[in-house]
């Protein structure tokens, strides 16, 4: 096993002796922040290869969600570049990036509660003109996300939080994206539902989708991920094969908190993302209270 690397370097390898596939998605030397406030990201680089899951962990306020906002075009970086399949897409907006294959599943719940599961899922493909292709993709997401298939005709607002999250993943997969950005998908879910959700993210990987995942359940997410990146002070502090990060006792103590069994059993957030020395700012929305009123997808 290779050693986890420290610094701002990009991350792409699963293991040193394995052939590394071409990157699907890269952010390079990104500097980004909000308005006139100090920079949040200070030269941050991450690379995601096809069919792999890269997991970002780090304390509250480290900039994890900001990375995903830059990646999906919600926030323009001050410098650095965003590359999709080698093409520079820096500065393009969310609509253009979505059309090019970058899907962002936001933190919290974002289904249209009054609409059926089917209607929610089909919304993900509203730009796809080929009706047959849409049907094929519906069939695929119903197979990958069993709850979506079973509750196809149900009103989405009646589903549990974990079930609604599956609907969101299914909706994101309807455009057959090259990369899916997932912000804390297990937030508020019990350990069993979290396990099922991570199994489905692994299935998305099997289908060839690249996943950039932000998680508070750092240990459990790293057990499923291929590559882990620990963010701190707006940079990638340490990165490497997820298994190596998990196996490093010092890293575990510093960033991953309690022993695996304790963490899994309690379902508690890990130290990497538990409230720490840098609490979220007052103007930050409380987590898991995001649009639940069906006002926007
Ligand atoms: N819309 C915004 N306007 C101003 N500052 C913001 C905004 N969103 C985030 N920030 C600030 O940027 C910094 C990084 O926030 P970000 O949400 O990326 O952190 P995070 O690592 O995702 O944290 P958490 O684990 O709490 O979700 C924080 O200091 C936060 O207060
Ligand atoms: Mg966040």
Automatic annotation (TrEMBL):
Transferase is among the record's keywords: no
Residue ranges with Low complexity bias: 262-275
InterPro entries per record: AAA+_ATPase, ABC_transporter-like_ATP-bd, BCAA_Transport_ATP-bd_LivF, P-loop_NTPase
Span of domain ABC transporter: 25-258
Database matches in SUPFAM superfamilies: P-loop containing nucleoside triphosphate hydrolases
Pfam families registered for this protein in UniProt: ABC_tran
Gene Ontology MF term list: ATP binding; ATP hydrolysis activity; branched-chain amino acid transmembrane transporter activity
Domain of life: Bacteria
SMART domains according to UniProt: AAA (SM00382)
GO biological process terms on file: L-amino acid transport
Transmembrane found in the keyword field: no
UniProt keyword terms in alphabetical order: Amino-acid transport, ATP-binding, Nucleotide-binding, Transport
Region annotated Disordered, chain positions: 262-297
Record-stated family: Belongs to the ABC transporter superfamily.
PANTHER family on file: ABC TRANSPORTER ATP-BINDING PROTEIN (PTHR43820:SF6), HIGH-AFFINITY BRANCHED-CHAIN AMINO ACID TRANSPORT ATP-BINDING PROTEIN LIVF (PTHR43820)
Descriptive protein name: Amino acid/amide ABC transporter ATP-binding protein 2 (HAAT family)
Organism of this sequence: Murinocardiopsis flavida
Taxon lineage: Bacteria, Bacillati, Actinomycetota, Actinomycetes, Streptosporangiales
